[in-house]
Each structure stands twice: as structure tokens, then as C-alpha cells.
Amino acid sequence: xxxxxxxxxxxxxxxxxxxxxxxxxxxxxxxxxxxxxxxxxxxxxxxxxxxxxxxxxxxxxxxxxxxxxxxxxxxxxxxxxxxxxxxxxxxxxxxxxxxxxxxxxxxxxxxxxxxxxxxxxxxxxxxxxxxxxxxxxxxxxxxxxxxxxxxxxxxxxxxxxxxxxxxxxxxxxxxxxxxxxxxxxxxxxxxxxxxxxxxxxxxxxxxxxxxxxxxxxxxxxxxxxxxxxxxxxxxxxxxxxxxxxxxxxxxxxxxxxxxxxxxxxxxxxxxxxxxxxxxxxxxxxxxxxxxxxxxxxxxxxxxxxxxxxxxxxxxxxxxxxxxxxxxxxxxxxxxxxxxxxxxxxxxxxxxxxxxxxxxxxxxxxxxxxxxxxxxxxxxxxxxxxxxxxxxxxxxxxxxxxxxxxxxxxxxxxxxxxxxxxxxxxxxxxxxxxxxxxxxxxxxxxxxxxxxxxxxxxxxxxxxxxxxxx
Length: 469
Known about the structure:
52% of the residues lie in helices and 13% in strands. The protein is an alpha+beta fold. The relative contact order is 0.12.
């Protein structure tokens, strides 16, 4: 029955909510693994007890029970294996192509592949998982070819750079254990070559170097952590602090939004629950402080050391971790994407390996997730521009700078939280912005300048002032 549920879950994600029924399977794990799971639960519950937000503890308890249940289900899956997941992913891929065609018609070829309950970014990672399963598991040859081809097509047409990063890093990590990981590297190179030849908005994303606004989300999440370094703001409550940075405070999946569907009024107060920091380290720091980040790093490190020697498990876990530097691929609950990570972790712990190098693995996880910030912090600093004039008023403002050619500017209005005004400006020209969509109140206006580099953007310069709206 567990295998059947795993095959159906990609199209029926609520099946994963049955995971707490498998908590009893944790008893079969070695004592060190139970200790790590206990520390992880404590790292969620203790900060939540200390934060003043009344919802923090019940939400932390729900997350702990759900994650531990998923790990228990992964322990049970050790007997079943991952083959059923491939069949479920195959059906998911078909439904994504069908949904995109029904939504966009002939224009689907010029849109990122979408799904009613998956974002293009999430679809990209699910495509990468299918490629790994097709290469590593003994499916019948026709199905192996179908699964691998469709998985690669989904990754390509989703335009998910995080999914592509996961494919490459997962394949590299699996090389010492399974030679078929070399084939996964070949698939990734083939997809990039194909993307280079196609004139498609989705595939062009693989060669774009911007962060798509993530630097603003990272800034807001870091400021939430800095305000609450020991407790965070509580699980699922960080979205209230970083909402409206990239999207409205409540948004649905892109395919639904494209069809004119938006959040109903009753759902809007809960929109922050699925707004994430686009980096797992910042997510943990913002939600549960330093203890929460340590607990997550130890749990993920335990998954890694337990999976050593198993080329498929290690590759899949690394794919999630790689994407975790620029997104939140295993935040749960999700449309099964995040749940797969903890199922894999349970399968790894059930192997019963000794925890050699656990501290080193946890440190490696933290280092991987900090690489985007380390990169941005170590780029050579060009000469800063100078302020020519700034005029800020209750309806908007204009800022002009000297020597800002080639810079990109963002405008933020910070009251109880921070919200981006507009999208992005060429800082070499006067920056005109409006505040008319903001509710009345006092705001600190921040005009942030970023210098563009080969692989990202680095914050360099700020013009700030306060206005009464």
C-alpha cells in the first residue's frame, strides 16, 4: 500500500498528510539517528516557546510531527524502494504538459511550463529527480526512456536554474558511488546545449545571471533574524516579514494566476504561510533563530552521512541541498516536493550506518547555503556612485545619482514590514517612483543600488529617507 501511495502522491499530494501514522517506524533507527531527530524537534519547539507569537509553538509542533512522520515513512520505504515514485512523476509530467496547453494553447511554447499546484521552479526540480530515477533504477527500458526524456523536458521547459543546479551537483556527488551519475552529467550538458539553440523565454533563463529579486528577500529575511536572533519569529510566520517583496502578500500558483484566479479574501490573512526566504539557512534563522538553523543543519548532515555509498540517495539529497541555496525545495507541507526530501532522509537513516563525519557534513551544508552570500560579499567593489538629488514626498519621489551607469536600483518602503515599490530601475537615469498603492502610515524609503556581476548582484549603495503617507 505504501508503494501505491507513493505512486499516487505526485498527483494527490494530500496523501502525504498520512505521514504521522508512520511515527512508530522511527523505533527501528539506531540511537544516534533518534538523537539527531530529537535535537531537530527541540530546535523547533524551544525557540517557539520563547517567542511572543502565540501561534509559534502549535505551528512548530505540527511541523515537528509532520517531518518526523515523513522520516518514519521513509524508513518504511526502505523495504519498498523508490520505483513507485517514478511512475507518479511520469503522470505528473504528463499533467504539466496538458495543463500548460489547456491554459495557454499554442502560446504554451512561449511560456514556462506550469502546473495547477506546482511552480515552474518546483517542476524543474521534479524533472531532475525523474532523470536520476530513470538512470539509476531498473525500470523496463521503454519506461526508463520515457521517464528520463520527459523529466529532462520538464526541467528544460520550466526554466528552473535551481533545478539545473541540483541536477549537476547531485550528479557530481554520486560519481564516486555510481558510474551512471556520469550519464546524469551528460544529460545536464545536453539540456544546456539544447537550451542554447532554442529561442524560448524559459530556456533563455539558464543563461541569465540575475537573482530575480532574491537579494531583496534575503535582505528582509536577514533583518527578521537580526531582530530575533535566538528565537526567530516562529515556523511559517517569516512570510509576514518578507511578504510583498517579490509577490503580493497572498498569491496562488502561477498557472492559476495566469488564468485570472487570485487569492480569495478569506485566504489573504494566511498568504504569508507559503512565502519563503529562497534560502534554507535564512529560512531557518528567520523562523527559529540560531538553534533552529543548527538543528536543521545537523538533520540534513545526518541524512548525507547515512546515504554515503548509495549513489541514488546521495545524488537526490544533494540535488535538494544545491537548490536550497537559492530556494526552499524541502519546506513542508508542499505539493509533495519537500516531502520527498524527508522520505529520502528516512531511507538513508534506515541503512544503519555509523555517523562518521556528522559535524563535517553539517558544516558543509551550512557552507553550501552561504555560498551565494559569500560570492556577493567577495566581488571587487567598483567606485560608488554619488547622490545628485533626492525628493521624497507622500505620493512618491525621484532620486538622481552621479556615476551610476550600469547599476540597477530597487525602491523599498518599510513600515511594519518592507515592501518593494515597482520592480527595478536603471540607476543611470532619474528614478521616479509612486507610493500611491501603499496604505496610510509612516514609511522609511530605501533606494538600494546593486552592481551587476557575472553570477549575481551585490548591494552597494543606499539612499534613505522617511515620509508620511
